[in-house]
Amino acid sequence: MKEKISRILLIDDDDLTNQIHETVISVWSGGKAFTKVFADATKALEYLKSSLPEELPNLILLDLNMPGMNGWDFMRKFKELNLSLPICVLSSSILKSDKENALKQSFVASFISKPLKPAHLDQLTTIL
């Protein structure tokens, strides 16, 4: 099951959060998952545009509240790429409307409150 989540794109502007989430992913996967991290959503989009199909992630973990291009902007631009990659919104937002609006997007598989936990990744393997 864990091979379903072997290439992860993590998009969050907080370095400490990224380090914690990378560690959780590494421990959860036994060091087998490859995680590419971007603190800037614009750069993450450029990465997706320039990646070969076999390099694309099989899961995107996306924060909503970031400076510059936020998670909502990223999703609008992502839609234009016509990629069939699942996004899991990983946010500290407690707004019910954020969760509802995110889950309205066909490519959003889940909405998880930070911090990421191994149980969240287990859950994602069952819905991806």
| Strand residue content | 15-25%
Largest sheet: 5 strands, parallel
Question: Share of helix among residues?
Answer: 40-55%
- Return residue spans where pLDDT drops below 50 for at least 5 consecutive residues: none
Top CATH class: Alpha Beta
Global outline:
globular
DSSP, total strands:
5
Strand order of the largest sheet: 2-1-3-4-5
- Helix/strand-derived category reads alpha/beta
Number of domains: 1
Average pLDDT number: 95
The termini sit apart by 10 Å
Question: Characteristics of this structure?
Answer:
single chain, 128 residues, alpha/beta, Rossmann fold, five-stranded parallel beta sheet, 5 helices, 5 strands, globular
Task: Report on this structure.
The chain has about 130 residues and is of the alpha/beta class. It has helices spanning about 15-30, 40-50, 70-80, 95-105, 120-125, and strands at about 5-10, 35-40, 60, 85-90, 110-115. It has a five-stranded parallel sheet, with helices on both faces. Strand 4 (about 85-90), helix 4 and strand 5 (about 110-115) form a beta-alpha-beta unit. Helix 2 (about 40-50) runs parallel beside helix 3 (about 70-80).
Task: Give a quick summary of the entry.
The protein is an alpha/beta fold. The chain has helices spanning 15-29, 41-50, 71-81, 96-103, 118-127, and strands at residues 7-11, 34-38, 59-62, 87-91, 108-113.
